[in-house]
């Protein structure tokens, strides 16, 4: 069996107050990849593409994880949390029973480049208290190789542990950076859902070439060999075990049933979602 199960290109989208982005997971050719609900890449050096940001908006029922490659984004939420995520850093927000937050650029020009990943929560955790954590670049372990490195956001590798964790729900997220013509080996995480997105350059994965802007679904059990082309390359690798529960989504609310979605809307309208 080929290590690559399918290939998908992201599609242009807008969110927030008109921020231009690429929707990679949760678009017509690639729906939910349980437990991952959505993956967006935002990348532009044109302030008009990102300056309006993501003004205050609600969430319930899942987790957001923002990881930055360049630029600065400020987070503020209804629990009083505030922080700025910068290049190499990550922010984790457990919306759970409800939170209202804003994510706004802390720059007026220059490159803004990063990812937002939505991770589902099991039914028994969807109505827990909301939580938030800021992890600057220095808190993310970097595993160095001769011509490559792995920046570990979540999960365990080579005796290192990424800072982002969720109770009873292990998942893996790593940023692989390869110098030209470098080779990097990555063992299987033994998790059923496994994805790789090439965000820079192009790489061959077990002998199959994957260009920038393409996400591949991978066989869960194979060890991986990444070989970069003649330029520097970057790959986001995700792995996790499916929750296996029904998913009902309406915009920023992700629950298990339509009735729970309707309750989330009523709670938001009544000002009780984040209480």
UniProtKB/TrEMBL annotation:
Swiss-Prot/TrEMBL keywords: Iron, Metal-binding
Cofactor binding note of this UniProt entry: Binds 1 Fe cation per subunit.
Domain Pirin C-terminal span(s) in chain numbering: 174-273
Residues that bind Fe cation: 57, 59, 101, 103
Alphabetized CDD domains for the sequence: cupin_pirin_C, cupin_pirin_N
Keyword Iron: yes
GO terms assigned for molecular function: metal ion binding
Keyword Metal-binding: yes
Names of the cofactor(s): Fe cation
Entry's family note: Belongs to the pirin family.
Protein name: Pirin family protein
Organism per entry: Pseudidiomarina donghaiensis
